[in-house]
């Protein structure tokens, strides 16, 4: 709880405005170029108000990373209501759906994505979790042996997929050059066209 002040609707609103303005400034100017004074000025609050909610600029930045990671993982782990079959077809279907969920989250939060997925030192955690989730899906659908048709180590293939996704997110989603569903389909076609032909 904040020191010496009760959280109420005005207090929560001040904190929310600080977070929103910090997202904009960190995304536009970068972490090192953004000062606390810039954030409080943009939020139209006093510097003491800032310190009611955050110990430091680092603490605020960390909160933004946690916010991004939470939303990203929620989008990644959201379950479909439809029953997906086992095997390659089920894996490819579910992966495309999960990519779509992620890409929708990213397009709804482009500035937060720039911070949490691209610029933050913590971004490697999100990418590692994404790799682990995709590998988990492969084993869940019992299709790791089927994917050996690519004649490449599965971990290398998935790391390559995640690296490609990062680049495509920067170029196409954050620049609004591609719709989430189209980009999800493009990635599936690019990486699993051989799989789709055999299903």
TrEMBL record:
UniProt DNA-binding residue ranges: 35-54
Pfam families with a match to the protein in the record: TetR_N
Annotated HTH tetR-type domain residues: 12-72
GO molecular function, one term: DNA binding
Keyword Transmembrane attached: no
InterPro entries the UniProt entry points to: Homeodomain-like_sf (IPR009057), HTH-type_Tx_Regulator (IPR050624), HTH_TetR (IPR001647)
Highest taxon in the source lineage: Bacteria
Keywords: DNA-binding, Repressor
Full protein name: TetR family transcriptional regulator
